[in-house]
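Treating backbone geometry as a discrete language has practical consequences that deserve illustration. Part of our work consisted of pairing the sequence of a single chain with a tokenised description of its backbone. What the numbers capture is local backbone geometry rather than side-chain detail. For completeness, the protein is quoted in full, as a sequence line and a line of structure tokens:
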Amino acid sequence: MRVSSPQGRFADGATAIDRKVLTGTSAVGKHLLHHYGDLAVHVHLGLYGKFTDGTGRPPPIVGEVRLRMVGNRRWLDLRGPAACEVLDPMGVDLLKGRLGPDPLNDDSDPDRAYERIRRSSKAIAAVLLDQSVVAGGGLIFVLETLFRAGIRPTAPARTLTPAAWGPLWTDLGALMREAVVNGRIDTVHSAHTPEAMNRPPRVDRHGGEVYVYRRAGQPCLICGTPVSTGTLAGRNSYWCEECQR
């Protein structure tokens, strides 16, 4: 790969991997790794990071391009990431060590997450959003999975039983995998789709059909109770008072 940093903020890292062979990619939670032999480029998009890519010759530089990769057939630009750095094997191990199990990875151990959950008095939603407990599950997935399980997001994490954690972990992974395949987040069961309920589709910049996320004051799709909202761990939280007792 030919690697550069037009913006300049990744200049040393780009020099370290320029003209090296990209041998593979992997992801843990929200962290992406491009592997170049013993070195890896670690990218976390954060709120504003974005990749653009295409075939053939790369276009002229537009905006603040942190990282540009050019191969024989494709090019890729990265703008505005929260993290873009080169890691050695020890750095990769340290990164993975501070992250919890990822529901998208089949070899992840959900029991490792539950050991943290069962000892915490914090709200269950806040604990599940902690990337050191569960890697990759963002706000939409966490709130929607809790709704589907009938668990209020403010419930103390330690009250979650092993019998409840197993299905919750499985459902979280299933929703995340479906989102990867479809390119959008849909969390409602087939009985609650717009077609099944003869209702208008949801209109929101995030897209997708959901039960509670960003539906404050709107009727619950199951019981009709207005969806509640509040602030939890600095994030807006949503739930149904009736369905999540």
Notes: The longest strand covers residues 31-36. Residues 110-239 form a domain with the Helicase, Ruva Protein; domain 3 fold (CATH 1.10.8.50).
